[in-house]
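Input for the complex:
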Amino acid sequence: MQRNQPAAYLYIAPAFTIMVLFSFVTMGISFFVSLHDWDAFRGRGEFVGAGNYVRALTDLGGPFWIAMANTALYVVMAVVGVLCTALPLAMLCRKARRGQSLFRTLYFIPSITPMVVISLTWTVLLKNWGNIVDKPATALLSIALVGIWQGAGYNMLLFLAGLSEIPDVYYDAARVDGAGPLAEFRHITLPLLRNTLIFVTIMVIIGAFQVFTQAYIMTEGGPGRSTEVLALLVFRNAFMYGGQMGFASAMAWLLFAVLFVFILIQMRVFRSRKVYDQ
Amino acid sequence: MTAPTPTAPTPRPRPRPFRWGPVLALAAMIVGAAVMVYPYAFTVGASFKTRKEFSQDRHGLIPPRFQPAERIQHARGRPSALDWEGADWPVMKNYADAITYGRIDVYMLNSFFYAVVITAVQLTVNVLAAYAFARMEFRGKGVLFSLLLATMMLPPAVLLVPQFLVVGWLGLVDSFWGVVLPGFAGAFGIFLLRQFFLNIPLSLEEAARLDGCGPMGILWRVILPLSKPVLVTLGLFTFMGAWNSFIWPLVVLSDQSYYPLTVGLSLFRDDSGGDWPRVFAASVMGSGPLLLLFLLAQRYLVGGISLSGLKGQ
Amino acid sequence: MALPRKRSHRKRLLILAALAALVVWAAVDLARGTGPWKAVADYAGGLARSAGPIKPLAGALRGAGGAPKRPIELRVWDWWSPAIAEEYGTYSHELERRFEAAHPDVDVVFQAIPFGNYQQKLATGMIGRTPPDVLQVSVAWAEGLYRRGMIRPLNEFLETTPELQADQFMSSAWYHNHADGAVFGIPHIIDSACLLWNLDMLREDPQLHFMFERAPDGGPDFTRVRFDAVRDWDHFRWILKRLYKPAPPGGKAKPRYGFIMNAYSMGAGSYMPWAAANGITLQNRAGTRATFDNPAGVEALQFMIDVFYEDRVCPPFTREIESYGPFQRKEVACSMAGTFSGKYIFRNINWGGFGMTAFPPGPRGDEQKTVAWANMIAISSRCKHPKLAWEYIRMVAGPDGAALRLDLLKMNSPRLDFTGGPQWTAKVREYPFMHNMQQICAAGAPLYHTETQAVRDEMRPVMEYLMLNWGDVRDGKGKYTGCADALHHVAERVNMIYDRYNRWSRPPAPPAKEGTR
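Predicted:
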């Protein structure tokens, strides 16, 4: 096993060709496209340099910043929603002691249903209950609710796994010391769950920044521009308008720049866990 | 050896105090489960209503023809919700419409093909690469592994537009290979498999090597049989991810006979102009297969979350 | 140890026997051509032929016996889908039948794409393996598609086709289909925006009888309303106030509204006819400038807002999926719609007691106006058989096609020789609401046509905001100080869209004519 085995390159070749093609090469192409006027059909247009980036960033009331604000708001709602649903659910699930496997199954079903199906059903349900989808003030909340609902089960399972790592002896010791449930939570659960919390939060943030399906199916970015999120704006500019693929690519790169920070944090947590495990 | 000393009679065990905690928690979980399940019940119920019944009663779970009270009223000749021409329409009409007009069966078949091909290719490619990273030494191994780590972090929304261009330059837009090709990349699977392979005891491999097996033979004879749980889990997740993918097929396809279920459902909704029961019938048919798969294989999936979520990344 | 083995052995035999029986049953069914297995096989065959990924396989298996019957495939794209209205399916089948009968080696294949996704799907399809050959194109996209190179000029074909010449069509129909000397589409239907009126409600009020056409005996003809029934905007508001009936006491019934405005898809579509009635269009012909940022444009928008907020004759705003919901439910007397709406209302509730008028002139307008558009048929630039595609266009846009559309779809034709004939008269007798369609379409100003998707996405949020939050704007708490401010803001952004469009879409070179220098 210590020898240098050149055959290994053959083993990793298929994975790497595809991976490199559809990640680094595409990122490079995306950058190249963002420097031009580009049409989906006609192809390359004029070279505009930083023009697309300038247009996105300097147009303060314009679609990019509106979409950025919408997306940021959505991310906040998603994180708050997940932490307020999945974590309590996981703790309740443990406390209930009975029917845990049934609950795990039931709560997980939305996570395996296509988002299109979920969006269609919730469009009608939310119209029935107060019609929050059509009001500009609450439309973003309604698509956030759908996202939180879908992810509740999956995130609950992640928290369950994290909770199961906390040895019971700590809780027993705390109970002997006379600590109440709130103190238990603050001093034992939260600190020992820290890595899981960070992991889940970062995953939710990265996923929420790219929300598309609910906005496309439920509201199509309306009413007004209240649910026009970045992924939807990129899609519209690249494929529905003429000649704006360069602008769409510039916006995608700006989104990537924002996400990069969170991605770095996740890589840190990732690495530290690996070291911890090994 | 002393005689056992007489001790005081052991006190009777105190009856355990009744704790509200678990009961309340159970109640809360049941309420939550109802919240999770209600939309599905609603969808199924609405899929059996006609357009008219649905617009009159958008809230009810049970269609009028299945409500005993309404049936009795109707039978007695009193006013009921079944008083209109066509109240005796065929129960499965929405489902039949979803197939004839919505072509949901074609879309499901397409989804199946895409998902099977993507899963098969991903598993093969990932197993090979994971084995190399776990068990072989080669120049640049660390760098290449970090590169892999990096690709996993690229958000799909950012890659959408250039992927379209690359697929276009390969001449694969609006074709089967155009839909599946980007799906072959899955670094996450490589990590998962690598971690698993690392935990397989070396002694087994040594034994196989002594028997004269090359690396391929070890992979085939020793590693893979032991990896069945991880392979099944990874396969299921990949299959489900491919079945549920929406935005890439939306972007790359325009020939409707190639649409997967997700895009086909969206098209059917656009064409149905407010006929929600039909759309719901298509939704029920569309989410059926995955639900079935899930119920049959849930221990792999639910267990797999714990596996992938925290440990062994 | 022998016993368990025998049991499993027996079980295996039973399973094999059952399978064999099934196979025999299936074989018998298939051989005889009837029975459940044949139905299953037929269904599976149909499925295999429709599912894209395995179509080639299915085709290869079937075509193993020789060359396909119809080697040339003519792909026709449209947004008229049978799922929207069954008549569309009947219409396309009839076209297919006629064309395939005239050209035995051609297989016509239709694909219906939803209107909202049409451009996106077209761009993808044109890059892919099976681009369309012939396609219906809306005026909203036509010039853009031509500039992007997706549809080809038709001048060479026009020269040899006497029955499709510009002077045979209404001038408003031959407006959007050419640019820089190139004709890229042939109009086949013309539609315009219109006001829909519930004739029963008009009839209830004798003071509104002037709106009806005169019957031969001099009295009002209650099945037809005059296309110029409304004199001007003040007259319109007066009529609406008369038609509005407040809710009867008791709380159960709803009021009967005079007019319905839809804030949620409010945008250029609802605004344009009123702006046209006030004398302006949304953009200039060349697509370089927005032309609504002026007092006339502001007046038109203010008028719409006033009808809702001052006159209070409209129901509260909701997001309806179907545009004619309240009108069909007889909850409003008047609604904005199009000359194409008749067949939808007929299909939905089998009722023809409505009529259409144009939009009355505003203070700065001087005649009845609306916006009109003539959808056109075009040939894609990737069509391999342009001459064949042209034959298809001749069939569709010629007099026979127009007659077919009138018959099946109750649609108007932009051909000038159309309304003279007996077929038109007979149709109008059967569906009286169609009688003034030609007049309304002839009164149409051109619909906007440059980068309309982007323009619409700019206008819609602002219009929606104004309509939904006028109270705040009026009190000075809104995002804009008023209509003028909002329209100015929109016009600035729309001009930016036009600038960008004209920069990246330098038009292709105009087609060279044979025999010219």
